[in-house]
Amino acid sequence: MSRSLIAIASANGFLAVTLGAFAAHGMEDILSTESLATFQTGVEYHMYHALALFGSALLALHYPQEQLPRRSAYLFLLGILFFSGSLYILCLSGIGWVGAITPIGGLFFLAGWATLFWFGVSSKPKR
């Protein structure tokens, strides 16, 4: 399962770069300056957390007996879906209520970091 998480993380990194390029080179005439900035925020958090997901996946591979790295990876993935996904939908569709979902994604991000912190302070060193 850890190798699948690495694949999911790299796919999200690829997607973040693709969406960032799409925004920078294809949407400046379509979206308002404000919407473009919001979309870019989604891309930034997408990439940060694709990298966090990748790190969690590597930890899960290195510590297969530990559940916390895997859980943090799933929380980061949910954060990407809810936070960045809602910003992408908001900007591209103009459906305003979708923005109410964004903070849920932020909570998933926080939970992922807290879970990773808990792993860091509670796990036993690998021998």
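That was protein one. Protein two is written in the same sequence-then-structure order:
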Amino acid sequence: MTLIFKPKSLIEFIGNSITDSHRTDPAHQPLGNGYVQNIHLLLQTGYPELQLKIINRGVSGDRVTSLEARWKTDVLEVNPDYLFINIGINDVWRFFVGPQEEALALPKFENIYRQLINNAKAHIQAQIILVSPYLAVNDPSDPFRKRLAAYQQTIDHLGDAFDLAVIHLQPAFDWAMLSKPSPYWTADRVHPTPEGNMLIALTILRAAGFSL
């Protein structure tokens, strides 16, 4: 598989804290210290001749409604060549932890996500890639994982409806947890450790045609 990125492309990642990864901290500006920074390093090292530019528009705590509020400034005005959308875990997590009024029912989640994609396709020429969230839990019957599965399936349906690629992080973590337990990959089943961030980065890049 050939790398999908064309020379001098602008590649944007938008999402929640997993994407944000302390990107506003002076010590980690502008890409944070998570998977986006790893992707930058791997692409600059593996394909320096392409002169790719990576930008991070993750915001900690974001749900799909949060993306809706900042879509114009953080996506349409940026006008990237490639747009990776990594959202959904907080929409589900709030059913279990934090203010429950921030939890987003599946129909509303799907409707807003669909509107965001339609809006992007109407105003910019970006190649859009959906990144499906994960939960680092081995047990498929876990209540959080069971609820998340419906949101993961919805993202798959949106990918089919718009003919967009969907990158599935759940199978990558399931595979990784066969060798190392969840705390090796995540601090709290969601927020990745350095190893978890590299797992995300490699999963995304392999789907984009990267080869070591």
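The first strand starts at residue 10 and ends at 15. Keep this in mind for the problem set.
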